[in-house]
Amino acid sequence: MTIGGRNYDQGVFTLQKEVVYLEYNFVVGTTGAVGTIKGSCKSIVRDAQGAYTITLDEGYNRMLSGGYGFVGTTCSGIVDVQIDDLSIQTNIQSGVLKIKCYNAAGSAADPASGVVLLMWGLFRKSSVLGKGE
Asked: Is the dihedral of CA 41, 36, 84, 133 positive or negative?
């Protein structure tokens, strides 16, 4: 095995138990419609302008962190994607994650048609509290 090879399996050192890293993405269609979905989720539904509900393959006890990025030949027009759920730590136990996309004016907006919204998250499967919780 080489360190840069695809067979290299690197362990993660953490103060959390049963940490799971997930990736999921979708192609944005016309007016923000959800196109092809890939990754560790059952579904992604557009709820309103710039707002989406992601249902993961299963529930988790806690979302530890996450991130996003865009891929495409045109600018997405989005400057921020936020978790739009004050009850995230309760809802993530059912595998539900709500996000909202914002443009430069700070308004909810749909990403440009044809771009791919890439997302990833670090979740804790265990119910054992981590350090600092």
From this structure: positive
pLDDT one-digit tens code per residue, 66-87: 999 999 988 889 999 999 888 8
Overall pTM > 0.90: no
Q: Model confidence over 13-40: pLDDT tens digits?
A: 666 778 888 899 999 999 999 999 999 8
- Do the beta carbons of residue 29 and residue 113 sit within 8 Å? yes
Contacts of 70 (CB under 8 A, 6+ apart): 76, 78, 111, 115, 116, 117, 118
Residues with Cβ < 8 Å from 111, sequence gap 6 or more? 28, 32, 50, 70, 76, 77, 78, 101, 117
DSSP 88: H
Q: For residue 112, how far is the Cα from the chain centroid? A: 18
Distance, CA of 36 to CA of 44 (rounded, Å)? 10
Would you say 41 and 55 are in contact if contact means Cβ atoms under 8 Å apart?
yes
- Count of C-beta atoms within a 10 Å radius of residue 65: 9
Query: In degrees rounded to 5, what are phi and psi of residue 75?
Result: -70, 140
